[in-house]
Every structure is written in C-alpha cells, then in structure tokens.
Task: inverse folding
C-alpha cells in the first residue's frame, strides 16, 4: 500500500489537464487521467466528510472552472451540508435469539451484522415474524403484510420480489425509504434481511467490512426519511437456517419457492429477538460540487439538463491483502471523470446547448444518496426547471461499447432521444438484465425521480449469461467495494469509455436542444411524482 505524496497528487493534477488544458491526449486517456487522480491512495477512498473527499472536491472544482463551467452558488462550486456519522460499538452491543427459554447468542460479523442506520443506544426484545419479501405494492395487488399483526414485532424478510412486478416499481417499493415507512405504519420495531444467494453482490466478508463503516445522517431531521426503527440487521446466508429452527418452513424451502417464483408463506417464527445497541455519533461536514454551463437560448436557458455522478466512495476499511484504502476507481471516479469529459466536449462544440447543463457531483451516495437528496431539497435553481437527469455510477467500461442499458427508459419520453442517439451511433439499447438488483433506486437518479424529474441511469449493456455478464459478475466478486477497485487491478476499455462519453454528450445535446421538455409517460408509476411546471415557450427559429 503505497500512498501517493502531495507532490505526486499535484503532478497528477497537471497531467490530467487542470493546468495543461491542451495536453495532447485522447478522450479515453484524459478520462483515465482523471481516474488516476481521484482514485489515488492520497484521496484515501474519498469517504464522505474526509480530507480525501475534500481534496477530490477541490480537484473537480478546478477542472470545471478550467472547462468554463460556472459556479452557481454563493459558496462557489461547493454546496456544503452538515451531517452526523453513526457507528455501532460492537464490543458494547449484543444480539441473540431467545427460543424455548434459552438464549442463543449470535456472533456479529459471522452470523449477522447490525445496522447503524436503524435504532439508537438501548435494548429491543420482540417477537419475530417472517413476511416473505416484505413488499406492499397496492398498484399491483401485492401485500405481504395483509392480515398480519406487526405491532411491536421485528419483521424478517427475504431479499428480492415477485417476477411479475416490473423492475422499476419493485425497486421503488424495495427502497429503504418506502420499506421503513410501511413498517412504521404497521407498528413494527425492527427489520432483519435474509440474503438471497442468487442476488448476492458481495462475499459475506466484504458485507461485514462495509457494515463496519459509519453510516451518515443529516443533522436536519426533516431530511432523514429512511430511519425510525429500533433495530436493523442483515443475516449471513450461510447461517439463515438458525432463524427458522422449529418454524413451519425451513429457510431452504422458502428459497426454493422464491427461485420457482411461487408465493412465499408468512408465519410467526418461534423465537424472540433480543438486542442491546450502543451507537456512537459525531458531527461531520461534506459538500456537493455543482456547476452550470449556461444555455445559448435566452428562453430555454432557464431550463436545465442535469448530469450527475457521486464523487464519494467508502474510504479506509478492513485490510484485504494488506491494503486498507478502498480507492473507488470504477465506483465512481469513472462516472465523475466521464462527466468532466462531457463538459469538455460541450465546451468545444461549435453550437452550444440551448438549455443550460447542470453538473452535479454529489457526496454521500454510499451512505444512502445523501448528497443528491440534499441537492434536490436545497436546489440552487427550481427543481421544476430541471427537465431531465442523466446519472452515472459504475457505468462499467470493461468491454467495447456496443450496447447500453438505460434504467428508466420505459418510464418517460426520454426513450425517444435515447433510441435516436443509439441508432445514430450503432449502439443497441437493451432491457435491464437483472431487475432484482433494484438498480433503478440505488443511485442518485432516484433522488431526482422522487422530485418528479425524468431520469436515465446508464450502464454498458450485456445480456444474461453472456461473456460480458460473466465478466461483470467476476468484477463484483473481486473488486466491488474492495481495495482492488483501483487503476492497477481491473480490465478497462478506454476506447469504449470514449465512445460512451460521445454517446452521453449526444444525449445531453438532444434533450437540451429539443423544443419540448421530457415528461413521464401517462402509464408510468413515477408520473405521481411530477411537479407542476411553467412551460417555457419554444424559442423562435
């Protein structure tokens, strides 16, 4: 683990273009240079509120200024926010199952991981009830809580959902914001999540390492909408049967039903959950980076196409092969670097976009979409003037760019420019190959969607069981939220990344120059979030 010195970071700044805008580099090479800076060991994993994150925010601000993107806030490019970090003190916390008068202690980090996002210092002693997937989706006639008395109980649920419910809707109701709200209304005091082995993204050891990182909440309680239960926990899939001892069904039976897409039973578990929590908290500060490229049309410039990506990663954590810095090259220095290169392309083109383009690089995505939530709650321009959000998070340029998955494509009229640009560039538009991963709500586009802004979330496309799919699965297993997500240990197709940047630039121009703003489809579930807007009249030709 070799830490880059401050002098070396300055050298990277220069090489990347902040102080040498005319460096003779290809677009793919410039993109990679940004990643080398942002994922260097000197940034220490860009954890929310850390010095490394602050350094990264300074770098991105300098790059935007060099690309003639303008600050939009009284605080310049930086949008500061006050936060609090929360960490479970494992040595002072306990969790156990109580069955038949016997207390069966569970080992944190082996059997289960407690979540610092739910609960406060104190104790919980409550009965357990298995609730299937734990989803209530009235629009699709699905309610796992129907007929159940959950008051004062801890619910146990299985990761996933019915195959007959469309991915974006299932993702929405699987989000913690929606889940916690339903559980609180039903009177539940806690939630335990059972992992589905078919949906695992991380080995258990890395899940444990991630859980030991502090969670973060806003100091303003009005912004915290995913908490309020007394306890939350995730169970090691290899130890899940412990929770079903003496129950009407085994864990294996429940999994078999889920994998056959059969209805899951709901039943009381013959155990109580007994928990003692000790949570430490401390104040924290972090910031978004926000800039605008003003539109060229006097009328349409009052509307904005938003390009977003999260700048944070998970910082310093448990060592893997002696390395404790989780560099976050693909997650998500790659997305930030791509937006910087889109800004360069927009600046260099002869005709500037008619609508303004907002560049929003947010903090706290890894902590629960905090930066994007703050941005749309404290927007520098009215949210109703934001016509679309294009979000990048691990767009995964590990093979040639010949296909794209655009999460949200079936929900709004953004499907039209998507189809046109893709056809023009010879790129296939593919369906979401893994809808149960709930990606539609797992990155910052979801904050914009909940405020009524049509959005697309882009990934390099692949089909189930293809070579690309296998490569991606391997990447998840080896590099996702691991120190090896750095510039030295993974395959990257720089030419593919450059083609994608050209694609995203064209998408930005298409929406920025269109006479009409995008809108949600009439049959989209997400139409309910749309806000009334004052239509900006089209400019005269």
Result:
């Amino acid at each position: 683990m070799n830490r880059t010195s401050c002098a070396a970071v300055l050298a990277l700044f220069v090489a990347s273009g902040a102080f040498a805008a005319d460096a003779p580099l290809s677009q793919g090479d410039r993109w990679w240079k940004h990643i080398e800076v942002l994922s260097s060991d000197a940034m220490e994993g860009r954890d929310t509120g850390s010095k490394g994150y602050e350094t990264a925010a300074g770098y991105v601000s300098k790059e935007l200024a060099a690309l003639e993107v303008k600050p939009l806030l009284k605080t310049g490019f930086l949008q500061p926010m006050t936060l609090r970090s929360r960490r479970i003190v494992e040595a002072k916390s306990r969790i156990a199952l109580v069955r038949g008068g016997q207390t069966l202690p569970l080992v944190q980090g082996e059997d289960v991981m407690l979540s610092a996002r739910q609960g406060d210092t104190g104790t919980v002693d409550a009965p357990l009830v298995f609730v299937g997937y734990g989803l209530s989706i009235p629009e699709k006639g699905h309610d796992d809580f129907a007929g159940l008395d959950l008051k004062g109980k801890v619910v146990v649920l299985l990761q996933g959902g019915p195959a007959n419910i469309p991915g974006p809707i299932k993702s929405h109701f699987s989000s913690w914001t929606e889940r916690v709200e339903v559980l609180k209304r039903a009177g539940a005091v806690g939630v335990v999540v059972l992992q589905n082995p078919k949906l695992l993204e991380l080995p258990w050891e890395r899940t444990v390492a991630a859980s030991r990182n502090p969670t973060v909440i806003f100091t303003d309680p009005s912004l915290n909408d995913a908490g309020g239960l007394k306890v939350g926990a995730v169970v090691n899939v290899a130890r899940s049967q412990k929770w079903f001892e003496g129950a009407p069904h085994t864990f294996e039976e429940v999994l078999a039903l889920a994998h056959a897409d059969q209805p899951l039973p709901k039943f009381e578990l013959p155990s109580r959950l007994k928990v003692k929590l000790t949570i430490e908290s401390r104040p924290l500060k972090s910031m978004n980076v926000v800039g605008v490229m003003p539109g060229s049309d006097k009328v349409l410039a009052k509307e904005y196409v938003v390009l977003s990506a999260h700048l944070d990663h998970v910082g310093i954590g448990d060592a893997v092969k002696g390395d404790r810095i989780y560099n976050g090259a693909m997650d998500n220095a790659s997305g930030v670097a791509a937006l910087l290169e889109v800004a360069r392309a927009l600046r260099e083109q002869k005709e500037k976009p008619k609508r303004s383009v907002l560049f929003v690089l947010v903090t706290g995505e890894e902590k629960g979409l905090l930066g994007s939530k703050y941005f749309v709650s404290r927007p520098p321009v009215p949210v109703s003037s934001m016509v679309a959000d294009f979000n990048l998070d691990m767009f995964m340029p590990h093979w040639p760019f010949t296909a794209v998955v655009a999460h949200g494509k079936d929900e709004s009229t953004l499907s039209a420019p998507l189809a046109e640009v893709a056809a023009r560039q010879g790129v296939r538009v593919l369906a979401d190959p893994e809808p149960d991963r709930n990606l539609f709500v797992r990155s910052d586009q979801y904050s914009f969607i909940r405020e009524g802004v049509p959005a697309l979330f882009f990934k390099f496309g692949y089909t189930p069981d293809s070579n690309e799919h296998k490569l991606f699965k391997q990447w998840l297993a080896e590099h996702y939220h691991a120190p090896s997500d750095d510039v030295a240990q993974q395959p990257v197709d720089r030419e593919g990344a450059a083609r994608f940047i050209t694609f995203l630039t064209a998408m930005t121009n298409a929406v920025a120059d269109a006479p009409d703003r995008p809108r949600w489809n009439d049959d989209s579930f997400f139409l309910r979030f749309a806000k009334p807007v004052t239509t900006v009249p089209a400019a005269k030709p």
